[in-house]
Design a protein that fits this description.
The structure is a homodimer.
Chain A: E1 5-8, E2 11-15, E3 26-29, H1 32-40, H2 47-63, H3 70-84, H4 92-107, H5 113-143, E4 149-154, H6 169-178, E5 182-188, H7 195-207, E6 211-214, H8 219-224, E7 230-233, E8 237-239, E9 244-247, H9 250-259, E10 264-267, E11 273-274, H10 291-294, E12 295-296, E13 299-300, E14 307-308, E15 313-316, E16 323-326, E17 329-331, H11 335-344
Parallel strand pairs in A: 4-5, 4-7, 5-6, 7-10, 8-11, 10-16
Antiparallel strand pairs in A: 1-2, 2-3, 8-9, 9-15, 12-13, 16-17
C-alpha cells in the first residue's frame, strides 16, 4: 500500500487523492501553506489523515521560522496554528493535532528554537506512527463484531488513505480478514467525490479483499433484500453524546440500517471524539463548492447556473449507532457514560 | 418546453435525453428497431414516455410491413410487438402500450392493411395526447395535497421529459404553481444517470420554478433538518397492493420521509399500475451495465476492473407511501381496495 503522507527530506509529500486511482501522483508541500491548501482542496482527506497532515504541516511551518527567541518563535507558530485549524471545519482531528503541536511548543518554553523545531518534527512523526498503531487496535477491537462470513457496507473511504495507514472502518475489515474471516465489502460510490469508487474499491482490490461498488442510491434496496449484514463507517467528529458527524449520506445509511435491523458501527480514534461538543447539532458542517456536484472534472453535467447545495457532512443521531469502535474499546448506548469510560482507560 | 417525442413525417423523433441539457439534439427513428434501441439506450426514458415511444415505434413498424393480407400483417406485427415489449423490463407502461396497439390490430381483423396502419399511427398519437391530458389531471388532483408554500423533494425525473408532456410528479408541482402556490423543488441528482441534475433542474429552470440540486446523499440530512415539507416521485410500475417500483434510491427517500414524518407521494397514471402483480417483490428489476457507474462519459472514475452492481430500480413497500396520485383520483392505504376503486371510476 502506498503511504498516505510522509516526510521526504525537508518537505512533506502526500498522495494526491483527487487523482486516484487513475494517477498515482505525489503532492509535495514545501511550507505549511501548501499543507493548508492540500487539506482545503482535498488532496488529502479523511479525519485522521487530516490530523496527521496538520501536525506535519505545522512542523514544516516551524522549520521555516527564522528567529532566535522562543517568544518570537511561539508567536509565529501560533499564527500558523490559527490558520491551519481553519483549513476545514468539521473533522475535529485537525484541531486535535494543532492543539497537540501547540501544547508541545508550550512545553518547550525557554528551550532553544532549533531544539523546539526538531521536537515538533518528531512529534508529527509520532502522530503518524501512533495513528497507524491506533488503527490496528481499532481493527482488533472491531473485528470481534464481524461474523465469520459477512457482507459489509461502507460509505466513503475510512481506509488507509483516510488515515496514517491501515484505516478505521477498513481497518476493522482488514483485521477481520487477517483473522481468517470471509468478509466482502459493498462500497457506496459516495458522491460527490466518489471516495467509495475511487479510494475504497482501489484499496481493497490492492489488498485482495472482495469489493463491489454501488451508487449511494442502491444501499437501502440491498439492505431491504437482506444482502447487507452490517454497516461500518468512519467519523469526522463524534459529540460527547455519541452523535456522529461523517461524510454526507452517512445519516441515511444509518436510518436505513436501523429500519432493516442491521447493525450500524462507527470506527474512529478517540481523537475524533470532541468532548467539548454535547450533541451533534453543535458540530459545524462544511458546505463546499457547487462545482463539485455540477461538474465532472471540467464537464458541466447539468444546466448552466443551476442552484446547488453541497453539504460535505451530516449528523447521525446516536440512536442509530449500534456501537462506536475505538482503540480503547467499544462504546454502546448510553453513549455519554460509555464514552467517558473510554477516556479514563 | 421541447416535446419529448413526436411524429415527423414518416419518422418518429425524440429529444436525445442522454445529451441534455448540454446539447438539444433530435434522435430520429426510421423504423421500430430504432425505437427499441432508443428505449434500451435511454435516449428516451421515464415510464409514460417509454409507453408513448413503444406505441409510436409499433406504428412505425406497422407502416413498414409490406403485405396485403391482414393475417400476414398481424403475424409480422406481433413479432415486432414481442421484441418491443422486451426493450426494458420494469416500466409496465411499455407493455401496456404494446398491448393497446395489439388489441387495436385484433379489432381491425379483416380490415384493409393500409387502414390498419393508419389506425395504428393514429392510436399512437392518441396515446401521446391522452398522456398529456392524464398528466394534467394528475397535476390537478395532486396539487390539492401541496401546501401554499412548500419545499418539495423529488427523485429522478418524472417531468415533461419522462412523459408525453407536463409530467407526473413535476405535473403536480406545475399545477401547484399554476394554482399560485409558492413551491420550491429540491432535486436529487439521481445517480448514475443524473436525471435530477440534467433533466429535472433543466425543466424547472425553463419553467421558472425554483429548484436546487443536491446529491442523493443529502436528501435524508435535509429532511432531518426540517428543510423538506413533502416528497413526490413518479413510478415505473405499481403493484395491485400499492408497492412502487421506481428509480433506484426511491425506497431510501421513502424510508427517510417516514422516519422524519414527511409525506411521501407517488404520482402516476393508471397505466403504471399492474393489477396482475400482487406485490412489489414480483416486479422485475432491471440491472444495467456497470459502465454507467464506473465511467463518466469515457472517463474511468474508479479502479480498472472494479466489480459494480447497478440495479436501475428499487421497490418501495406500500407502508412508506402516503398516497398515490392518479388521473382518476388519489389512493391511500389500504391500497388494494383503493386502487381497485380507481379502476372502476
Amino acid at each position: 500500500m502506498i503511504p498516505t503522507i510522509e516526510w521526504r527530506g525537508k518537505t512533506v509529500r502526500m498522495i494526491d487523492q483527487r487523482k486516484l486511482p487513475g494517477k498515482i501522483e505525489w503532492y509535495t508541500c514545501k511550507g505549511y501553506k501548501d499543507v493548508i491548501k492540500a487539506i482545503e482542496k482535498m488532496v488529502i482527506r479523511g479525519a485522521p489523515a487530516i490530523g496527521v497532515a496538520a501536525g506535519m504541516g505545522l512542523a514544516l511551518g516551524a522549520l521555516s521560522i527564522r528567529v532566535r527567541s522562543y517568544e518570537k518563535f511561539k508567536d509565529r507558530f501560533e499564527e500558523m496554528a490559527g490558520r491551519m485549524v481553519k483549513a476545514r471545519p468539521t473533522a475535529v482531528n485537525l484541531r486535535w493535532a494543532v492543539e497537540r503541536m501547540s501544547l508541545l511548543v508550550d512545553a518547550m518554553a525557554g528551550k532553544d528554537v532549533e531544539e523546539t523545531q526538531r521536537a515538533l518534527k518528531k512529534e508529527s512523526e509520532t502522530i503518524l506512527a501512533e495513528d497507524i498503531d491506533i488503527n490496528r487496535k481499532i481493527g482488533k477491537n472491531g473485528q470481534r463484531l464481524i461474523p465469520k462470513k459477512a457482507t459489509i457496507l461502507t460509505h466513503c473511504n475510512a481506509g488507509s488513505l483516510a488515515t496514517g495507514g491501515y484505516g478505521t472502518a477498513l481497518g476493522v475489515v482488514r483485521a477481520a480478514h487477517e483473522a481468517g474471516k470471509k468478509g466482502e465489502v459493498i462500497a457506496d460510490e459516495t458522491r460527490p467525490w466518489f471516495q467509495g469508487l475511487r479510494l475504497t474499491a482501489f484499496e481493497l482490490m490492492e489488498d485482495g479483499i472482495p469489493v463491489t461498488v454501488i451508487t449511494d442510491n442502491a444501499a437501502g434496496s440491498l439492505m431491504y433484500q437482506n444482502k447487507i449484514d452490517l454497516v461500518i463507517t468512519g467519523a469526522d467528529r463524534i459529540a460527547a453524546n455519541g452523535d456522529v458527524a461523517n461524510k454526507i449520506g452517512t445519516y441515511q445509511v444509518a436510518v436505513l440500517a436501523k429500519e432493516n435491523k442491521i447493525p450500524f458501527y462507527v470506527a474512529a480514534p478517540l481523537s475524533t471524539i470532541d468532548m467539548g461538543i454535547k450533541s451533534g447539532d453543535m458540530i459545524p458542517v462544511e458546505e463546499r463548492q457547487p462545482k463539485e456536484i455540477s461538474h465532472f472534472r471540467n464537464y458541466e453535467i447539468g444546466p448552466s447556473g443551476v442552484k446547488i447545495l453541497n453539504p460535505a457532512f451530516d449528523i447521525t443521531p446516536n440512536k442509530y449507532v449500534t456501537a462506536i469502535i475505538t482503540e480503547k474499546g467499544i462504546a454502546k448506548s448510553p453513549y455519554k457514560a460509555a464514552i467517558k469510560r473510554l477516556f479514563k482507560k
